[in-house]
């Protein structure tokens, strides 16, 4: 916690006073969109990748379970 009597507070206060006032309260520009993004294609790609990862994880789990069962049978 910064207490007004500490050296840390004094240092912070001096640094903040050194910032030009215009930099703090300058005009705010609204950014223009970079481009139009086709979110429907991105969502389809995301769904495809997600399903692929789930299928791969299930295959891996099934393989591990089968290996464990096979070890127990021996």
From TrEMBL:
The lineage of its organism: Eukaryota, Metazoa, Ecdysozoa, Nematoda, Chromadorea. It comes from the Eukaryota. This is Uncharacterized protein.
């Amino acid at each position: 916690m910064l207490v007004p009597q500490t050296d840390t507070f004094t240092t912070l206060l001096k640094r903040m006073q050194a910032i030009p006032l215009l930099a703090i309260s300058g005009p705010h520009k609204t950014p223009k969109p970079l481009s139009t993004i086709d979110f429907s294609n991105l969502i389809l790609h995301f769904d495809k990748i997600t399903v692929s990862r789930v299928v791969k994880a299930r295959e891996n789990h099934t393989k591990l379970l089968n290996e464990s069962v096979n070890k127990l049978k021996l």
